[in-house]
Design brief:
about 150 residues; alpha+beta; four-stranded antiparallel sheet; two-stranded antiparallel ribbon; 3 helices; 8 strands; about 20% helix; disordered N terminus
């Protein structure tokens, strides 16, 4: 894992594309799970920006969703940790139906595993870790100390 220099906390960077779709990270971030039985990925005909994701044990239905939203779900990451992706990742929308092999899931981790496998198989997602320095804000007291007063209610 890459280390965020400022906070000494793991920081991930996801990239999309390439021919190394079968490359997985050994730290458990993206494990090969072979949980995907069948999946349908079609371009969405909906022109709205709203998306919907429904999940019941063993099934995932996503309508009008971007690949970036799927990456955020699959890896539990915020946008600023996802880097170097083609522009279409955030703009092109898809309708997705996916079913797991077992037909049942045990929660959020199984759902994420299913989405990770979908991203690898259908979008050739490859991942790697990369250290990045990120800006941080420091809240400090000014001269003379705090000037806040207690609220009398």
């Amino acid at each position: 894992m890459a280390i965020d220099v400022r906070l000494l906390k793991p920081s991930y960077l996801i990239t999309l594309g390439g021919m190394l779709a079968s490359t997985f990270l050994s730290d458990g971030l993206a494990q090969e799970s072979r949980t995907l039985e069948v999946a349908s990925v079609k371009p969405s005909r909906n022109n709205e920006i709203d998306s919907n994701l429904d999940s019941v044990p063993g099934r995932l239905t996503a309508t009008n969703i971007t690949v970036k939203e799927l990456i955020r779900l699959a890896y539990d990451m915020r946008d600023y940790k996802i880097g170097r992706t083609p522009g279409w990742v955030a703009t092109e929308r898809f309708d997705i139906l996916a079913k797991s092999v077992s037909g049942a899931g045990n929660g959020l981790q199984d759902e994420r595993s299913l989405v990770r496998e979908l991203l690898v198989q259908r979008f050739q997602l490859t991942t790697h870790l990369e250290p990045r320095q990120m800006p941080v804000y420091l809240l400090a007291l000014g001269k003379g100390g705090p000037k806040l007063t207690a609220h009398n209610d």
